């Protein structure tokens, strides 16, 4: 192994703080412009109810994208999150249904709590396995997670026999407030999304661990020489992402009360798009949680506006989304 | 014709000491990626189980493919490795599978194509499909009756495909006959519950009065119903799905408030196609060139005939 010149920059940003801030405004500007467009096209766009609809449906992708920001900031990638969400949903439903039909079944509430605990454990475990395969197994993250993308979804399809896994009706009633209820007028998933985003931002920007993540993404060799425990930090990023996927799934299951083989399809690309649109470089280095949140909201807003209007042929929806993604990325250019 | 082919079969039997009666039938279908294809896979395996038990001279090999190239490879392997002499295929895509299927047909394999057709009709001997025109027309007729010829309907479309176009065109053509009924908008829900949920939420934001939703698929109907429940809207009187999924038929049987009718488009047609092909080939006969399995309006009166609780769909 060739020693690297030590003059390489590590985590320290070269740009002055103000210029950095201005550069990061791309997605905010795009979001504001989109909102103005939405409000002028349809008067219902700017209503509180519609805003809450958009934020609630963003919660799944948004929470996953917060976790994804860590993985990408450390120079990794995870393609399996959509399949993992589907499998966690399936495993939760199967386990909870099994408990409710058992001989001495525990109370409904404790079954739901157990289901949630199982989801978190499963997410953390899958993330850890990814991390270990990538660090100790020395396999590219792209390949590891491409493999598990197939594995997770196939296992779910097998579990559901190709059809739908549906949560027991009474449990579904008991569990549904987790998605459908509001606290102070704001739906529960939006609160959870906000909490995850704040926690993510604090961890990434205000802790040594967050600095290590960005240092590794910036230059892994230098980080090693700086005696950062690279493997451990990397495994932790995948573990965090696994937990984020589990949290998203915990919010998702009460929405429709079921998991099918199409659950979570392409979520990985939406999450990655949210991260990149938000200003985190796919090459790793500086991660931006706030940018990711705005990126995720931006993607939902495009879909919402297209549904609320009928100027553009429905065939072109994906094209409009593509144009906005590329435009925002263009506004972000020059960042690493 | 029948007598002729029987004579022919008899002659062949006499000539080759029974060898001609053995049928090795390949089944190439999509993998179970959503409820409907889950049903296809289940019914294909059901056909294998029942027909192999009933006919010792019959061997059925079921292959599922997730992509068009994979299915093309499977068709090739079924011919060269498994030595099939009959093929029942539900092509993932019409255009790209036409060549591979034509090639095995030219080598003497009897080909039945199911549901999605091939672009060249010479590529197969027989075609078996559901009735997509009726799939669109029947709900339109039913909703027009249910709304007494007056009201607002929103439409969820499937994925942009020829099947979807056929259904929506038939639906629109029928609705046009009722000037009191207005189609407010039609957007793609991609045969997916989550997408249907979002699109319906946005419809509910946009339109203050909706009398019925044509969800055009039972999976999408679930998403639509959840969005309606969440918004606590009481103006919607009917959510019409489609395809006869077991949970939807159950709702019809139970007299659900929003789901009172459905239209059949059962994945069971793969079972029918395999059975028809196998029995015809065992007797050395051919199938009619085109068999359309009718789509039937399911209401409380006949729903029990369409309820298959063991099927995943």
TrEMBL record, chain A:
Provide the primary localization. membrane
Question: What keywords would UniProt list here?
Answer: Cell membrane, Membrane, Transmembrane, Transmembrane helix
Subcellular location(s) per record? Cell membrane
Annotated membrane topology: Multi-pass membrane protein
Secretion signal: which residues? none
Q: One MF term in GO for this entry?
A: transmembrane transporter activity
Cellular compartments per GO CC: plasma membrane
Record-linked CDD domains: TM_PBP1_transp_AraH_like (cd06579)
Superkingdom of the source species: Bacteria
Q: Which residues cross the membrane?
A: 24-42, 54-77, 84-103, 109-134, 141-159, 179-204, 235-253, 289-306
Pfam families for the chain? BPD_transp_2
What is the designated name of this protein? Answer: ABC transporter permease
Tell me the classification of the organism that encodes this protein.
Bacteria, Pseudomonadati, Pseudomonadota, Betaproteobacteria, Burkholderiales
UniProtKB/TrEMBL annotation, chain B:
- Look up keyword Signal and say if it applies: yes
UniProt KW Chloroplast keyword: no
Do you know which Pfam families this protein is assigned to? Peripla_BP_4
Supply the alphabetized keyword list. Answer: Signal
The GO molecular function terms of this record are: carbohydrate binding
For this protein, the record's SUPFAM superfamilies field holds: Periplasmic binding protein-like I
Localization: Cell envelope
Q: Where is the signal peptide?
A: 1-19
The record's GO CC annotations read: cell envelope
PANTHER family in UniProt: D-ALLOSE-BINDING PERIPLASMIC PROTEIN-RELATED
Protein name listed in UniProt: ABC transporter substrate-binding protein
Protein's organism = Pseudoduganella plicata
Lineage summary: Bacteria, Pseudomonadati, Pseudomonadota, Betaproteobacteria, Burkholderiales
């Amino acid at each position: 192994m060739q020693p690297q010149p030590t003059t390489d920059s590590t985590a320290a940003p070269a740009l002055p703080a103000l210029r950095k801030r201005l550069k990061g405004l791309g997605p905010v500007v795009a979001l504001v412009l989109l909102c103005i467009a939405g409000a002028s096209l349809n008067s219902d766009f700017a209503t509180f109810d519609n805003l809450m609809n958009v934020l609630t449906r963003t919660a799944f992708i948004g929470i996953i994208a917060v976790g994804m920001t860590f993985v990408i900031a450390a120079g990794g990638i995870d393609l399996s999150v959509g399949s993992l969400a589907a499998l966690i949903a399936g495993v939760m439903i199967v386990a909870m249904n099994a408990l409710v039909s058992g001989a001495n079944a525990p109370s409904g509430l404790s079954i739901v709590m157990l289901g949630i605990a199982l989801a978190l454990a499963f997410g953390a475990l899958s993330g850890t396995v990814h991390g270990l395969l990538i660090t100790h197994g020395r396999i590219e993250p792209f390949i590891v997670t491409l493999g598990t993308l197939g594995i997770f979804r196939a296992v779910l399809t097998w579990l559901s026999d190709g059809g739908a896994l549906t949560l027991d009706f009474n449990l579904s009633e008991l569990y549904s407030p987790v998605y459908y209820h509001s606290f102070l007028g704001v739906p529960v998933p939006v609160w959870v999304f906000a909490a995850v985003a704040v926690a993510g931002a604090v961890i990434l920007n205000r802790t040594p661990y967050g600095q290590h993540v960005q240092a590794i993404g910036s230059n892994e060799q230098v980080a090693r020489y700086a005696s950062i425990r690279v493997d451990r930090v990397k495994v932790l990023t995948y573990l965090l992402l696994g937990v984020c996927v589990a949290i998203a799934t915990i919010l998702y299951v009460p929405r429709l009360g079921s998991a099918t083989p199409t659950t979570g399809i392409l979520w990985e690309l939406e999450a990655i798009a949210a991260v990149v649109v938000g200003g985190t470089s796919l090459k790793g280095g500086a991660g931006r949680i706030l940018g990711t949140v705005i990126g995720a909201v931006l993607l939902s807003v495009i879909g919402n506006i297209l549904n609320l209007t009928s100027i553009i042929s429905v065939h072109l929806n994906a094209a409009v989304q593509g144009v906005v993604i590329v435009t925002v990325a263009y506004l972000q250019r020059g960042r690493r | 014709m029948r007598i002729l082919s029987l004579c022919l079969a008899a002659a062949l039997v006499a000539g080759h000491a029974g060898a001609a009666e053995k049928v090795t039938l390949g089944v190439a279908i999509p993998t179970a990626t959503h409820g409907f294809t889950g049903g296809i896979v289940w019914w294909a395996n059901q056909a294998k189980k029942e027909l192999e038990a009933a006919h010792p001279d019959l061997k059925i090999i079921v292959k599922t493919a997730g992509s068009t190239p994979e299915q093309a490879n499977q068709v090739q392997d079924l011919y060269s490795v498994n030595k099939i002499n009959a093929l029942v295929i539900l092509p993932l895509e019409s255009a790209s599978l036409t060549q591979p299927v034509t090639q095995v047909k030219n080598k003497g394999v009897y080909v039945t194509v199911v549901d999605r057709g091939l672009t060249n009709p010479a590529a197969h001997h027989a075609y078996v499909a559901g009735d997509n025109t009726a799939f669109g027309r029947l709900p339109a007729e039913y909703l027009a009756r249910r709304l007494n010829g007056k009201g607002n309907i929103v439409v969820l479309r499937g994925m942009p495909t020829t099947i979807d176009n056929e259904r929506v065109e038939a639906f629109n053509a029928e609705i046009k006959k009722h000037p009191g009924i207005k189609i407010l908008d039609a957007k793609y829900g991609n045969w997916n519950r989550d997408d249907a949920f979002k699109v319906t939420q946005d419809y509910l934001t946009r339109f203050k009065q909706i009398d019925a939703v044509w969800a055009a698929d039972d999976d999408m109907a679930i998403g639509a119903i959840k969005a309606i429940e969440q918004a606590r809207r009481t103006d919607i009187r009917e959510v019409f799905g489609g395809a006869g999924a077991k949970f939807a038929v159950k709702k019809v049987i139970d007299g659900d408030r929003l789901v009172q009718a459905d239209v059949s488009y059962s994945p069971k047609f793969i079972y029918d196609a395999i059975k028809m092909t196998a029995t015809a080939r065992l007797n050395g006969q051919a199938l009619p060139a085109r068999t359309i399995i009718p789509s039937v309006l399911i209401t409380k009166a006949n729903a029990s005939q369409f309820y298959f609780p063991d099927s995943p769909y």
